[in-house]
Batch of 2 targets.
Target 1
Amino acid sequence: MDNYDVVVIGGGPGGLSSSLKAYQNNKKVLLIEREDKLGGILKQCIHNGFGLITFKEQLSGPEYVERYIDEIKKSNIKTLLSTFVLDIKKVKNGFLIIFSNSKGISKVLADNIIFATGCRERSAKQVFIQGDRCSGVLTAGLSQYYVNILGEKMGKEVVVLGSGDIGLIMARRLSLEGSHVKAAYEIKDSPSGLNRNIKQCLEDFNIPLYLSMTVTKTFGKDKLEAIEVAKVDKNMQVIEGTREIIPCDCLILSVGLIPENELISKLGVEMSKKTSGPVVDGQMMTSIPHIYASGNCLHVNDLVDYVSEASVIAGDNASKEIKEIEYKNITIDEHLAYCVPQRINIKTSNSKTIMYLRSRCKMDKAELKILDSSNSEIYKKNLMFVNPAETIRLEVNLDNIKDDIHITLNEKE
Ligand SMILES: Cc1cc2nc3c(=O)[nH]c(=O)nc-3n(C[C@H](O)[C@H](O)[C@H](O)COP(=O)(O)OP(=O)(O)OC[C@H]3O[C@@H](n4cnc5c(N)ncnc54)[C@H](O)[C@@H]3O)c2cc1C
C-alpha cells in the first residue's frame, strides 16, 4: 500500500495551498479531490475580487486558482481527481484513508492528514420553508454552477432569499443574464453581505432589498409558481397579517454555508459549536495530533486570501513533527462570534500567530484587546467599520503566554 507523509483532502484553494507548502518542505504529498478538476468552489466564481491580498491584483476565481494549479502541475504532488474519500481509520502506523474512484475502492496510508473539504449550502428545508420540492427553488451556489459552468438559464422572474454575498452576486449575475430579479428578502434587520456588494449587485441593478422579511412558503407542484413572504419581529417570528404572495418562477436561497465535516467528526476530532468546524491550535492542528484543517471546513471564509494563508500554515506544520503539546485556551467576549484558532500550544513557537475573528455586530469604531489571565493587556488594535460579514485578521506574538487568554471587542466613541 502507498504511504504518504501528507494526504490533503479537497482540491479547492485551501487544499492546493496546503499541498504546495508540504511539497516545498520535501514531503511526499497526495492530493485527493472528488470532482474531475482542481479549484473547488472558485471554478464557478467568475466575478472578480479574488487575490487582492495575495497577488495585489483583482482576479476572478478561476484565475486565482489557476496560479496554484500551475504550480501543482510542475510539482511531483500525486493528484487523484474524481476520487471521493469515504472513510478514515486511525491505525498503528498512521491513518488509513479509504477512497473510491473509477478503479474501485482503494486505500493509502498517511502520516498526516489535512482536511480542506470546504462547505455546503443550507437548503430550503433547513430554513423551514413550506412547500413541495418543485423545480425553480435552488441554492445560490447551485444556480451559479448552472449559469457559469453549464451555461443554463435560470427563471424569468427571480426572488433571492438572504443577503449574503453569494446571493447578492447571483442577483447581479442573473440580471445580466436577462432574468428580472424582483427583490431580495433578508430575515435580519441589516444586510449580511459586504456593503460594496449591496451597492454593486443590488442598488446598481435597481433590485430592492427588504429587511426583516422572509419567505415562508412556496407554491407549485412541479414548477415554482409563487412564494409567500412575510415580515418578522425582532425574534424572527412571522408577524401575522403581513403575509403577501409574490408570483415568480425561481427562488434563489442564500441562507448560509455549513462546513463539510462528516469525515473529520467521525474520527472523533473535537468540534466547535461556534464555527461548526474543528477546534484547532495556532498551527491549524486539530485535537487529534497529525490531523489538520484549513479553509471553509474550518470556518466559513469571506476572503480566499485567508483560506490560502491558513492552508499554508496547515501544510507547513503537517510537514513538521510536533512533539510536545500544552494548550492554553482563547476565550472571547459576547461581541465576538468566534476566533480561530481556539487555543495555543505553548510548546511551539507562537511568535507570529495568525487569528481570524468575526464580530457579532456592526461597529463604526472598535477597540480589540487580548488580555492575559490577570487582565493585563497583551495586544490592542483599533478597528474601523467592524462588520459580521468581514473577517478580522490579527497577527500577534503569543510566545510569552503562560495561561489562557481572553479577547474583547468594544465599540469606541
Ligand atoms: C459564491 C462565492 C463567492 C465568493 N466570492 C469571493 C470573493 O469575491 N473574494 C474572495 O476572496 N472570496 C470569495 N469567496 C470565498 C472563497 O472563495 C472561499 O472561501 C474559498 O473558495 C474556500 O476554499 P476551500 O478550499 O476551503 O473550499 P472549496 O473551494 O469549497 O474546496 C473544497 C474541495 O473539497 C472537495 N471535497 C469535499 N469533500 C471531499 C471528499 N470527501 N473527498 C474528496 N474531495 C472532497 C470539494 O469537491 C471541493 O473541491 C466566495 C465564495 C463563494 C461560494
Note: Residues 123-255 form a domain with the FAD/NAD(P)-binding domain fold (CATH 3.50.50.60).
Target 2
Amino acid sequence: MADAQMRIVVITDDPGWHGRQLLAALSARHCTASYLRLQDCLFDLAPSSANPSLGSGLLLGALGARLPDGVFVRGVPGGTLEQVILRLDVLHALKLLDVPVYNDARAIERTVDKAMTSFLLHRAGIPTPPTWVMEDPVRCREQIAREWALGHEVVCKPLFGSQGDGLLRLAPGMPLPDLAAYQGVAYLQRFLPGQGGINRDFRVFVIGGRADCAMARYGQGWIHNVAQGARCEAVRVSGELAELALAAVKALDMDYAGVDLMAGPDGRLQVLEVNSVPAWHGLQSVTPHRIAEHLVEDFLTRCVLPAHTRRIALAGRWPSHELH
Ligand SMILES: Nc1ncnc2c1ncn2[C@@H]1O[C@H](COP(=O)(O)OP(=O)(O)O)[C@@H](O)[C@H]1O
Ligand SMILES: [Mg+2]
C-alpha cells in the first residue's frame, strides 16, 4: 500500500532525543524517514540538461529534487535575518508544492514572534496578560511606569525568546533594561504573581485539534520552563485548561503546539505563549501518553490525501520520473 512507502523528512540540525523519538514512531508506521537540515536546502531555478522542463526549483539536501510526502519541522535554526528568511522560504515553498509541512512556516512565524502571537490571541478574545510591544524607549519607560503606578510588576521578554532565557521581571523602581539587549524591541507583559503563593504554570500539548496531555510546571523561581529546572507533574487536561489551549491553537492555525498557561489574579487561566516547535521530553517523563506516536499518527493523516492529490495534480506538469 502506498502509505507503507511514504517518505518523510524531519527538519532538524540537532536530532537528539526528539528526533530519535520521531524517527522511531515513523518507522513503526512503515515510513522511510530521514533528517534534513534547512541549511542544506537551496533554490536552483535554472532548467538543467537532465531536466529541461521546469522542476520545482527546490533542492533538499541528500534528497535533491525529489519531494518528500511530508515534512515534520523539529527546528528552524537561528542565523542572520537573511538565513532565517531563506530557511522559512524553503518551508513556504514546500507547502506551495503541496507537501504537508507540520507546523507550516506561517504557524512558525506567528508563534516564534511573541508580538504576533499576543496580537492574534488578543484578537481572538483569548485571555492573555496585558502586553505592549514597541521600539520607542521613551514609550517603553512610560508604559512600565504606568504599570508600576497601578501596582503591577512587568515582564520584559526577548521577542524571539524561548526556554525562559532572557526574561526580566521589573519590580517598581528597578533599573529599566537597555533595549539593545532585546534587539531594540520591548515586549512587555503584566506580571502574573501566581495564586496563593504557588509557583507554577501549565503546559498543554495540543495535537490535531485535541488536547493530548498536560503538566503543571513548578519552577524554583517565577520562571517555570523545564529548561530552567522546573519540576513537572502530570495534570488532567480538561475544562478551562483544555478549552483555552485549543482556542489558542485554533487562533494561531497550527497543527500541533505546546501552550503555556497560568492563573491570573482572579484564578482564571490565561495563555502566556504558544510554541510551534515544542519540546516534550519533560512532559513525556510524567505522562503515559505516547506523544511522538500521537504526533506521527496525526501528521500522517495529513500526508496521505495531499500526497495522492499531488501526484494527480502534478502528473500533467512534470515528467513522470520526477513523481514519487
Ligand atoms: N506575564 C507573566 N507573568 C508571570 N510569569 C510569566 C509571565 N510570562 C512568562 N512567565 C514565566 O516565564 C516562563 C517563560 O515565559 P514564556 O512567555 O513562556 O517564554 P519562553 O518562550 O521563554 O518559554 C513562563 O513559563 C512563566 O513561568
Ligand atoms: Mg514558554
Note: Residues 297 and 321 are 29 Å apart (CA to CA).
